[in-house]
Design a protein that fits this description.
Largest sheet: 2 strands, antiparallel
Number of helices: 14
Structural class: mainly alpha
Shape: globular
Number of strands: 2
Strand content: under 5%
């Protein structure tokens, strides 16, 4: 039966709960299956956990996803549950300390921005591998990992908009407008990535591959949520935004080439081809007007912006090493192997 608002059985937008990966995440999952207010793991557990490991990163991912689409069957009141927020704060402290340690000694803002503009003559890494010799199975793994990021690609960045003003805000919103499809639902970049997944025979449902994704992938996703949710980290979020927009175009060109070589499908190639042109323009706007405008208003944020740029590169490098190490050893990079592609997918 159809009403003026659509069908009576709308598509579920939330994600299924993944399985636990340790004491903290398993305990948190047990709590989330009950009404808000149930006891969650104590913050002291976070102090003993590996800040970049599976258990802490999945627990943090669970906390953050409550601010996005949530989880199927989970009480929406958990989003602002005081005890859950106390646990999240402890997890965030461990994570942020690890990020600062991993990027210690990074140079000043201009040096960081100049460095990410340089493309090596003989580059190595995931996009080069996939372009030149990667298999379709490896491309499918890569897309499954990245789905946790790309199916909400621009959402965490939107949190910084109320924290900007003037030139920085206007330029930031202009770039975000493109990310959200310029007013056209079918052009939203998250929707373009869902179409890429269908070409690769993957399930484009939001959060579908949370169980399969590595800790290193969870780190890259949690990074932008950490920066986006905290006003005190607004400079770092702008740095993350700048790093993504600056480095995306050349990497996307290589990945578009990989999709062509592998005959992955038109939508798979289009997602990356779209980013080649769009992000080349965005890079100039972000550096000149978003960063330039923010520093005019708050020059003291230069170091935080540099931290955001450096942290983005650091976590992406860790993810790349994890992928390449698995593939060079002849192993899957995922925690759970993918199903075979759907026929005709």
């Amino acid at each position: 039966m159809t009403s003026v608002l659509g069908t009576t059985a709308p598509k579920t937008l939330s994600a299924p709960l993944p399985g636990g990966r340790g004491e903290i995440s398993a305990g948190l999952l047990d709590a989330l299956r009950a009404p808000a207010g149930r006891a969650v793991p104590g913050p002291a557990l976070a102090e003993r956990a590996d800040p970049l490991g599976d258990d802490l990163q999945l627990a943090l991912y669970l906390c953050y996803e409550l601010h996005y689409r949530g989880f199927t069957g989970v009480d929406a009141s958990w989003e602002w549950d005081p005890e859950l927020l106390r646990l999240r704060a402890a997890l965030e402290r461990r994570f942020l300390d690890a990020l600062r340690e991993g990027t210690a000694g990074h140079p000043d803002l201009e040096a960081v921005l100049d460095a990410i503009l340089v493309e090596p003559v003989a580059g190595t890494g995931v996009s080069y591998h996939l372009r030149d010799r990667g298999t379709l199975a490896q491309m499918r793994e890569y897309a499954a990992h990245r789905s946790l990021y790309h199916l909400k690609e621009a959402d965490p960045h939107a949190w910084v908009i109320p924290r900007l003003r003037g030139r920085a805000k206007a330029a930031f919103v202009a770039v975000e407008y493109d990310e959200f499809g310029g007013g056209h639902a079918e052009r939203v970049h998250a929707e373009l990535f869902a179409a890429l997944m269908r070409d690769l025979g993957l399930d484009p449902s939001y959060g579908r591959y949370a169980d399969a994704a590595s800790a290193e992938m969870l780190v890259t996703v949690n990074l932008m949520s950490l920066f986006g949710l905290h006003r005190s980290l607004r400079g770092a979020l702008v740095g993350h935004f700048a790093a993504v927009e600056t480095t995306s175009s050349p990497g996307s060109r290589r990945l578009a080439g990989a999709m062509r070589r592998l005959e992955a499908g038109p939508a798979a190639e289009h997602f990356y081809a779209e980013h080649v042109t769009a992000d080349a323009v965005h890079e100039q706007v972000v550096r000149r007007d978003v960063i330039g405008g923010l520093l005019e208003d708050e020059p003291s944020l230069a170091r935080d912006i540099a931290f955001g740029v450096a942290a983005t590169g650091w976590v992406e490098d860790r993810f790349g090493v994890q992928l390449m190490s698995a593939w060079e050893a002849g192993r899957s990079s995922l925690r759970v192997r993918l199903d075979h592609p759907a026929t005709g997918g």
